[in-house]
Amino acid sequence: MSFDAWLTKNPYIENSIPTFTREEPFSNLLMDLQTKGWSVQDDFFSADFTQALMDEVENIQNAYMLQAGVGRKQDHQVVLDARRDYIQWIDPDKPIKKDFLKMMETLRVALNRRLFLGLFDYEAHFARYEKGAFYEKHIDAFKGESNRILSTVLYLNESWEYGDGGELVIYDEHNPEIEVGRYSPIKGRLAIFLSECFYHEVLVAKKTRHSVAGWFRVNNTTGKTLDPDQ
Ligand SMILES: O=C(O)CCC(=O)C(=O)O
Ligand SMILES: [Fe+2]
Questions:
Q1: ipTM score of the complex?
Q2: How confident is the model at residue 4 (pLDDT cuts 50, 70, 90)?
Q3: Which segments constitute the Fe2OG dioxygenase domain (predicted)?
Q4: Which CATH superfamily, name and number, covers 3-10+21-70+84-217?
């Protein structure tokens, strides 16, 4: 199925908000992933769709979010020196969240067809960086230790000026001292990169910054041991 076909079909959109606008960002994304392992695309989703996600996250109070930690379930710690964002995992309990997960599911299938990545599922959370928050240089997955394959970050911020900080900085795959890209978290921008390969960081935000961070994963379930999620 071509991208156009699933774009026009949109069989399961609960909000009836058109989700994708054009094919170009998708082909660029594929090309980038094939050639360099990361990609940043603007207007990947329609403006209305992105706005609906923003409306959702903006209305969650900090008290209903988690202070994000470092590490997974067993060794989950809130390390405030490393990161200072609030998160809320996305469950399909509201139409816009359901639609987001379904669109990412569609993207998962398309990526598997085109790039043979064997992606099994997707997990994602809203993130809020209040003024002064950051996420120090890190990698989302260590080789062989995690099932996270492809990281995604969708930015939701309407007006983000130069000087507002909060940029995503991506470092070179082979030399993590070298910066290869720096991107403001502007509405509709989607960053995708191979989770095991790219160190990245979020510079100090000078005002509240919203995003949806997510991970396409492979299934590492063996025998009776269920792979832990989130
Ligand atoms: O928000 C971003 O730009 C990146 C967030 C991030 O690196 C993460 O949540 O692991
Ligand atoms: Fe990250």
A1: 0.99
A2: low
A3: 115-218
A4: q2cbj1_9rhob like domain (2.60.120.620)
